Amino acid sequence: MKRKLIGRLMILGVFSCCCKVFGSEKINVTAGFDVPELWNIGVRCQLSQTQIGVSYGLMSCTGAERLLSISSDIYYHFGGKTKLSERRPWYIRAGLNYVYHETAAYIGKGLFFKLRAGRDLNISKKVGIEIDAGPLFWVLKKETRKKPPGWLDFDIYIPLLPSIGIAVFYRI
After folding, report:
1. Are 56 and 43 spatial neighbours (Cβ–Cβ below 8 Å)?
2. Among candidate residues 44, 157, 61, 171, the one with its CA nearest the CA of residue 95
3. Which of 51, 62, 90, 140 is in Cβ range 3.0-4.6 Å of 111 for a Cys bridge?
């Protein structure tokens, strides 16, 4: 488990180095809670009013259950002005999210497309809070059973779900 976490942190580090090489104006580090990203950490490159980023999320439900998420997003900032940042406060966010869910009974994998609208609330020139919401579309779903389903075990497939999130960001 620790080796996987170190590997994922290395991927985030490589991503941030690439942002510097390709002329990104700013790097943003984030931490927050989102649906479906879970408790997550991420890094984003900012180019003018556009941001491109990745994040890794996880949630510990019970001892036998694992839930993790990998997400990539693009943000476009528009509308309004703020004294604490050149980046406009309102944004549209689109991205893909891979979710892995393992229990004692099954392994579930899903790919989602999310489209959200949100706002940055700048606390200082370096720190802020982002809040966003929008629809979440289920693109792919795969489930592998480890045990046969019980009599009360049923699967519900809803192709459109709500997505909401809150995060703290730090501009490096």
Report:
1. no
2. 44
3. 140
Distance of CA 42 to the CA centre of its chain: 7
Q: Is 134 left (phi over 0), alpha (psi -120 to 50) or beta?
A: left
Nearest to 102 by CA among 55, 145, 157: 145
C-beta neighbour count of 138 within 10 angstroms: 16
User: What is each CA distance from 121 to 27, 84, 90, 132, 170, in whole angstroms?
Assistant: 17, 10, 9, 11, 12
In CATH, the number for domain 2-130+141-171 is 2.40.160.20
Is the entire prediction scored with pTM above 0.85? no
Q: How far apart are CA 44 and CA 131, in angstroms?
A: 16
Query: Which among 89, 99, 101, 18 is positioned nearest to 53, based on CA atoms?
Result: 18
Kindly report, residue by residue over 101-129, the tens digit of the pLDDT: 988 888 999 999 999 999 999 999 999 99
